[in-house]
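Suppose you are handed a protein chain with no further information: no name, no annotation, nothing but its sequence. What can you learn? This example shows the usual starting point.
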Amino acid sequence: MTNKSDLTVGKKNVVCKKRDIKGIFSPGVIRNSIILDVTHDYIFLNDSDLVINPRLSKEILEQRNKVQKIGKNAFEMYPCLYLTKEETERFDGDFQGCLESFLRGENHRVEGIALASSCLLMNREWFLQLGGFDEQFVGHGGEDLELIDRLTRHYPIGPRPADYSLNIKAQHPGDYQGFRRYFSYYALPHLFAGRFLVHQWHPRPLTHPYHKRRAGNDQLLEQMLSRSEAERGPLKGPVVPCNDLGGELPDFREWMIRLQEEAGYPVQEYPGLLRWQDGIKPKRPLWRKLRKLYLNPRAFFRDMFKPASL
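A reasonable first move is to predict its three-dimensional structure. Written in structure tokens, the prediction is:
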């Protein structure tokens, strides 16, 4: 799914009529509008600033068949690597090279990762039954994570942890907390199977109304995810457990290390999911610090005193 109104469904692109967008752009509103026009049973959402690994493109129909057999509640979520500005300018389709560079703990090609992402494969009818994207989110951020929250309520991979509502970001997945850690149980296996995307660098000016809404959307997301089950109201349909982990959540860091070592990436040589490689200096330009201070002052001051990952 892109902000320019095209939708990738399997290997076909369905280009929908242009929508008139008034006011601040809302990804949720435009996506909901587009999906209403689609006639396919399953939809695969991805944004215009993402590039799909050919491995994922090749296997997307197989992935659809998998979730279709489980039932309409089932979905898949695919991780994204965030390319640096320099890598975006020279990127030639070397997905594996970018992955290995990131796993080695380098930061000249990939500056970060999102295991929980808006790249979702799901049943269209179920998406509509859930109510689609919440259109309270206007501008940048929040609408995708709130939808994933509802998807996981009906397709739980395990019990939700006590810290589930925490909206705390982390550079390295080993430091994930709250719902980001919970969502990552769904997505991480795809990374080592080559089913991931890369995000192309682009400017995000805080003076633009779209990006200025990020802080407010983060606050709205925290409020919505911290509600009790009674406050949330009744479920929109049946609950079908996701049995990928047998209904019990293993310790996240231990599970993550085991998966990557089984995939041939020993953590001693590939520490990138936990920390930067020894000798690598984090890229923390002044503009990025000021951006974080503006968007999330609490996180800014918390991170000033947070110890480095082990």
